[in-house]
Each structure stands twice: as structure tokens, then as C-alpha cells.
């Protein structure tokens, strides 16, 4: 069984991705909540077959973290990101990343990408790399939508968010639907993932 280290500082995103990679991909996944924790993990006794690093987590310092991790391990190191533009992806691949995995990948595509990297290939999403969206997304959320998004990012249920904000649960659902459309999010976990990478929550 291939061993994967997944490093991401957003608990909900990290745990969701790890659970899916384990249950559907059949990989053994260890998680780290930041770059320093990832370094500690790879310096441990057991080796990894692949390291996935979130581009924006603390300690990464953009692509400097990629180089530092590559110096520590003998396995492939790939970058995972929700909002880094194509220019960053191209630089990461030129710097020797084994792949650039947008968090917008469908779950099965994510597993396929990880499998390809483990098989010795470089994963480069051509449609994404050839696009010209080199500017970060500029999403205009209302103050209340941001409040709801913060609650979602904290892993709270709609009922808990409604109680915290002193609004009806149906209102939370409406805000969630609207902000998900603005973010282009498939579900609440994806919304939390994108919000964290965009610095919105």
C-alpha cells in the first residue's frame, strides 16, 4: 500500500481529502497541519511514497517549501492548491514538482492524479495550465455570507451557525447557496477549502 503524506493547515479540508484518499483510493495517508509538521513527519522512521504540500499553508513560503521538502525526501513531492493561478503551477512544475493538483479536481480525478504520480508520471492539468486566469479570484461576498462561510470553515452545522448569528437555519442555507455559487463551490467542504485559500475565512 502506497504511503502518502498530506500537509494542509485547514483541518476540514485536510481530513476530508485524507479520508477520501484512504477509503476510495486505498492509500495509507498520514496528515500534517503545516510545513514544519510535514518536515517532522518525513524525518521520522517510516518513509513515504508521495508528499502532497498545500501551497498556502504556514511555513511553505511559496515554492521555497517545495525545494526544502525535495531536499529531505527521495519520493515525489507535489503541490496542492485551491486558488494558486496557472503561473504558479507552471513554476512549481519547472522547479521539479511531481504534479500540481488543483483542489477543484473532482474526487475521482484526484485519486487518478495521485495514482499517476505514484506510477512515476508528472501530473500537469493541461486545461488549467493553458488558461490565462493568472489573477486571483476576486469574489464579492456580503458581510453575512462571510460570517456563514467562517462558520462552515470552522466545521459548524447550519443549525450551529444559525444559533451563533441569531438567524434562521433556512437563512443560513440561503446564504450558503449564494456564496457557493459565487465561489464556484460544489459543496460546503469545497466552499471552505476555497475560502481558506482565498483568505476569505
UniProtKB/TrEMBL annotation:
SUPFAM superfamilies: C-terminal effector domain of the bipartite response regulators, CheY-like
Protein keywords: DNA-binding, Phosphoprotein
Domain (Response regulatory) ranges: 3-118
InterPro entries (alphabetical): CheY-like_superfamily (IPR011006), EvgA-like (IPR051015), NreC/VraR/RcsB-like_REC (IPR058245), Sig_transdc_resp-reg_C-effctor (IPR016032), Sig_transdc_resp-reg_receiver (IPR001789), Tscrpt_reg_LuxR_C (IPR000792), WH-like_DNA-bd_sf (IPR036388)
Residue ranges of every copy of the HTH luxR-type domain listed in the record: 134-199
Modification 4-aspartylphosphate, positions: 54
Official protein name in the record: Response regulator transcription factor
